[in-house]
Amino acid sequence: MKFKFCSDGDCPLWALAALHALSSLPAQLFRSLLQHVMEEQPDDAIMEILKDTNLSSRDECARAAAVIRWVVQQALSCSCPGPQLTRDLLVLGVPRAHATALTDAAEAQREAYQAHVRSNGFMVNKLTDVSLAPGPEGTVDTYKLSLYTDDTFTGEQNKREVLIERSQAKTLLQELKKAYKKMEELDVE
Fold it and tell me: Fewer CB near the last or first residue (10 Å), C or N of the chain?
């Protein structure tokens, strides 16, 4: 079957199995679990909620948290509206109370997610700094270019180093200046 929150494709088997396992939880317990997962509480807090259920092992707790995060993230990234998400989850056999709770969680995050996408949507990694140093000893006419980036999704900072020839550095700088000028022209219009 095709599901909007799965990019108009099938639901992965791992997610289907995890959703099925969560279906056995009472609605109140599921809402409590959902709240803890969305607040990114530590694993011990999630294990405490599930301690008297058939999902009490560390692996089962991790699987439960992962599928909750995945459903919410998928619903947001696929622009799946709330009523459609509820219908899709019901078709998958998720109890109505659980489907409604997952939909509520996705809807609660929708505005913040859309604002984040508007500001960073076309960016994979945000360049935060660049440094240039002479190439390593033994190389001739090279520079070591260090690019510092922030991953827009995780916030993790990365550093990538590239060796480039001196002539390539000049060409790269000229091309970047042209691209910057074009972007400024587009921004004005």
Answer: C
Q: What DSSP string describes 104-143?
A: HHHHHHHHHHHHHHHHHTT-SEEEEEEEEEEPPTT-SSEE
Angle at 183 between CA 179 and CA 189, to 5 degrees: 150
Backbone angles phi, psi at 49, to 5 degrees: -65, -40
Taking the CA of residue 94 as centre, how many other CA atoms within 13 Å lie in the half-sphere pointing to its CB?
26
Which tens digits make up the pLDDT trace of 101-140?
A: 999 999 999 999 888 777 766 666 778 888 888 888 877 8
One DSSP character per residue, 10-56 reads PPPHHHHHHHHHHTTS-HHHHHHHHHHHHTT--HHHHHHHTTTSTT-
